[in-house]
Write a structure and sequence with these properties.
This protein is an alpha/beta fold. 43% of the residues lie in helices and 21% in strands. It has 12 helices and 12 strands. The strands form 3 sheets. Strands 3, 4, 5, 6, 9, 10, 11 and 12 form an 8-stranded mixed beta sheet that branches.
Length: 331
């Protein structure tokens, strides 16, 4: 193994984590043959096979599982060394690593641009994930900061709310309920719903928003993509429960409408999260402070949607900035 390279270890870790050469190639921005070549070279250094294929799926061999443990430790040591050097650089010239839940990619790049304007020379590295992928980023120390709705409860993290996050019921503009006021939940449950998959942040928010009546929802279709859900609603296939921060363009274009439902919008919060023992580089600490101080106003300006007061869910104990967030949600 003495001739193995860090590049080979990183490629191997990515394939092992995703259990897919094609998905690893996509994440690493490499071709699939290039990924296969790097893994093959590492297997030659190790002197044994690291993966085995059963049908169309690949699995780690016992040797591969053992190497993965050491591989991640080596990669983390290099990352910590890079972080240590970043501390000496300060904010200018630093690299900001941020991972965001998929609903945040509708506005988060704009926040990064605003931050970069006042911090010249900063390198931005943004990745977008579903909840499972985001938790993996935190667990494996692959990001400095994670932006999410529900911080993990089984991980030692620092979780700080920085902006309100409303969820609403959307429908096609010609839907008969669009002109109705204070629609009772009982009436809403008669409609077919197009929903996100179970386990997603949106599904969990819907589950809390509907309380004990989530099982009464008439699910017409379950889709993993928010974009596809919006198109299904626009086509008249049903109504949906979505983050208000994902529908700004459709509202402005008039292709979607928000229904006036009793108890809505459901108000949650955006959180900035990092491992408790993580030594944040100066640029990451500066961006965290930027979110806490300027996040709510910037998001409202970008989204251009300010909902009426709705139902505040206690998604997690509010800490720093809680009063400011509640006030922002009631403007």
């Amino acid at each position: 193994m003495k001739n193995a390279t860090l590049r080979q270890l990183k490629v191997f870790e990515t394939v092992a984590r995703l259990l897919s050469f094609s998905r690893a190639a996509e994440e690493l921005h490499l071709t699939q043959p290039a990924v296969s070549t790097q893994v093959k070279k590492l297997e030659e250094h190790a002197g044994l096979a690291l993966f085995e294929q059963l049908g169309k799926k690949i699995f780690l061999t016992p040797g591969g599982s053992e190497l993965l443990y050491y591989c991640r430790a080596i990669i983390q040591q290099f990352q910590e060394a890079e972080d240590a050097m970043t501390h000496f650089k300060g904010i200018t010239g630093g690299k900001l690593n941020v991972a965001v839940i998929s609903a945040g990619d509708y506005f988060f790049p704009r926040l990064l641009v605003e931050f970069a304007r006042s911090h010249q020379g900063v390198t931005l590295n943004l990745s977008v994930h579903n909840r499972e992928g985001l938790l993996n980023q935190l667990a494996n120390n692959l990001t400095d900061l994670a932006i999410m709705v529900r911080p993990p409860i089984d991980m030692d993290t620092v979780n700080e709310p920085f902006a309100p996050h409303p969820y609403v019921i959307v429908a096609a503009p010609d839907h008969p309920l669009v002109c109705k006021k204070n629609i009772p939940l009982k009436r809403l449950l008669q409609e077919p719903f197009v929903v996100r998959e179970k386990g997603s942040d949106t599904w969990n928010s819907m589950e809390e928003g509907f309380g004990g009546r989530v099982n009464d929802i008439n699910i017409a279709m379950e889709i993993k993509s928010t974009e596809t859900i919006k198109q299904a609603v626009i086509a008249g296939m049903g109504i949906s429960f979505l983050s208000a921060h994902t529908i700004s363009l459709e509202l402005q274009a008039g292709s979607l409408a928000v229904l006036d439902v009793e108890g809505f919008p459901v108000m949650l919060n955006w959180y900035v999260v990092h491992r408790k023992n993580k030594r944040l580089p100066p640029v990451a600490q500066a961006f965290k402070n930027f979110l806490l101080n300027e996040g709510p106003e910037l998001i409202e300006r970008i989204i251009r949607y300010n909902p009426k007061p709705g139902k505040q869910l206690s998604d997690a104990p509010l800490k720093t900035g809680a009063k400011k967030i509640r006030a922002a949600s009631k403007k």
